[in-house]
Write a structure and sequence with these properties.
One of its GO terms (biological process) is purine nucleobase metabolic process. The structure is a single chain. By secondary structure, this protein is mainly beta. The protein has a single domain, classed as Ureidoglycolate hydrolase (Jelly Rolls). The chain is 9% helix and 30% strand. The chain is built from 4 helices and 19 strands. A hairpin with a 2-residue loop joins strand 8 and strand 9. The protein starts with 11 loop residues before the first helix and ends in a 14-residue tail after the last strand. The N terminus is likely disordered. The structure holds (2S)-(carbamoylamino)(hydroxy)ethanoic acid (UGC). (2S)-(carbamoylamino)(hydroxy)ethanoic acid binds next to loops. The site of (2S)-(carbamoylamino)(hydroxy)ethanoic acid has 6 residues, from loops.
Length: 301
Amino acid sequence: MPSDDEGSLPSCGNLWLIIKAALRKTISASSRVVRAEVLDPTTFAPFGDVIQNPTTHGDLPRLQRIEANQGSATKWLDVTKMRDWYDLGQSRKRAEVAMNMFVCKPRQLVTKAGSAVFPVKILERHPFTPQTFLPLGVDKAAETCYLVIVAPTLPLRSRKGNDENLEPPYPVPSPRRKRSLRERLLGARPNLFTNDSSSRTTPASPVSSGSGRKGPGLPDLENIRAFVARGDQAITYGAGTWHAPMVALGQKAIDFVVVQYMNGVAIEDCQECELEAESGGDGLAVDLEGFVGNAAARAKL
Ligand SMILES: NC(=O)N[C@@H](O)C(=O)O
């Protein structure tokens, strides 16, 4: 039941939104329309990982596999990288694994020059953690699918002399301290589970280039990309990768289990950039031609 005081004090949820808004940076975006692409592990690699069954997606050479469960299962190794980078954060506050559920309603599209487009208004990143979105129960053939919008990170000192980007937009980690000999030796101690000297429980497999942590610069709006994912694909944004808040497409909401590290320090967990359309323009948008609408148009997936 609402109390008399309702509205005078922000609730926990509202307080979080207020903090998020206060931490948001605004950058201007020129008018551009980016074409959506089919999600594919190779083209997505600079931004993170695509998690999918390599057998059914014809993606065999990329990953290592072994037999498991007395031969009744195939185990694909290291389908994504979940590394905790919070030791680089200014607060030094330790992070824990968080598994949250996002129920994402289908987003409103607008029509521009005859095609359906999604206007990109916000980008965000998690500087010290990868973030994995796993859709639940979405049929690969269903109209429901989702749009993954990502941008590279600009170098801090832009060659174009762009002043806006000379300073890191947010607190940056202090330079990494050299590890002592003792720490290095401890880091190389044998693994109790495999009897080898690595800290892994499974043999090494290639790491996609997008799994490494990104720098502290602003998003590179000139090179923004947009990928349409099916229900039988999950994705991981590499640590620090600029991305748009999840965009569900179709008629139904999508339930995602979202896995990441978090330490509860707002600026270290999530940083946002608001994109303001340059004067007189429409700003940045993603063209979904061929992906939304009738079944024939969705043949691309
Ligand atoms: N990606 C997305 O939809 N949202 C987030 O990353 C979040 O943590 O809010």
